């Protein structure tokens, strides 16, 4: 029994489950909507917490937030500034950045095929983001965000 | 009120899938209560665990007749055990309760096949950042900066595995060479298998009460959660929260890093011990690797670090780890540590930190300074 599958149920999923039970009739099975079932089966929520990378001039751009109070930048569309709690406004960062550090993961991780490269990338005038690199990259390398869904990806600038 | 540790106890540490948490917890609590003397009960219990199921605290405690008193469960990643200790300490210090049990429990072997599964609701967990990879980022950065060498990283593993040769409760031990450490299987570059803590099951406990003759005195406890860690941070992940928590604990104790005779700290990975050694001020910047390599932080050295074998070798059952560290320092300060005793140790330090939440410099860090009877 993997309790973690239950631990990752979002509030939304729980409310859907509650409503599905309320709607059900005695003696009939509760109708489970597909993403609820998927949530149980896969152990992941429907909301993707990773930064969103959109297509921009010269490469991908992280659609994040900038604090209107302290100016701190953030790769996430969070409701307030993680530095000071101030109000935030949409801001885009990238596409270029510098590798702060990097590694290659060589152990099994659910849903992934090792080895895979990861780097913390300091975007020019932007936040530090965790990005997939494919293979090994040196510290200090110049990289460019690749637009796309899912993982944040960078490629080394030739 | 001044607080003391009246008694400590632990289970064996290791892969113990045939036991359940009731067995592991009983081993630790039974030993701690016998060690403390007096009635086989307490006024309140704080339990630290990370992955145990809901209700686990009451489930293990009712199996040993500890019912009816306030029971609180806390989670602070790898610092959950020392968080329970910190809260138990505060409860006694303020007079809220007289005699309090802090218990840490974790069974990893039945929850994970290998490394902890990255948390999919966290951005970096969802991106596949396993914990070894987070520490590997710090190691890569320090190697790049020339602040540490591969041989110095390996020296931490060599040292702690050798320490555990004298600890019968340790998960495993061995006389490894630096070449063997660096030649073991690569986990997340540059960290090899022997630079990573094992998958462990275990429990550890401490009974706290008012200061009394013969008991180890708690000079101070500090607990902090991390600030944002980002492109502005001058240091690698985890350094600054350990530095801030350590500084707070030293100030409250009226002591400094030079006063520490023996320390147990968070060496989940070799780089972790080195970052922590510098963050606590036991060595200057760039000096921790040399200290490990030269034997300064080994048993017989000036300031031994992780005489128990640390997380690398004693094992790392997450919620139990902090109280296992407390137990080791209590034994050291009472002169009961056997073949790994640091002669004449008067001041001991415990540091635990836990992480995993992205954009933070650690979920929590606890530092406590203890004094011999």
Structural summary, described in words:
With 158 residues, chain A is an alpha+beta fold. Chain A has two domains: 31 residues, no CATH class; 105 residues, OB fold (Dihydrolipoamide Acetyltransferase, E2P) (Beta Barrel), CATH 2.40.50.840. Chain A has a five-stranded antiparallel beta sheet, with no helix packed on it. The N and C termini of chain A lie far apart (48 Å). Chain B is α/β, with parallel strands linked by helices and 373 residues long. Chain B has two domains: 125 residues, Peroxisomal Thiolase, Chain A, domain 1 (3-Layer(aba) Sandwich); 224 residues, 3-Layer(aba) Sandwich (Peroxisomal Thiolase, Chain A, domain 1), CATH 3.40.47.10. Chain B has twelve helices and eleven strands. A nine-stranded mixed beta sheet of chain B has the order 3-2-4-7-1-8-11-10-9. In chain B, strands 5-6 form a two-stranded antiparallel sheet. In chain B, strand 2, helix 2 and strand 3 form a beta-alpha-beta unit. In chain B, helix 1 packs across helix 2, helix 3 crosses helix 12 and helix 6 crosses helix 10. The longest helix of chain B has 16 residues. Chain B is globular and about 55 Å long. The relative contact order of chain B is 0.20. The mean pLDDT of chain B is 97.
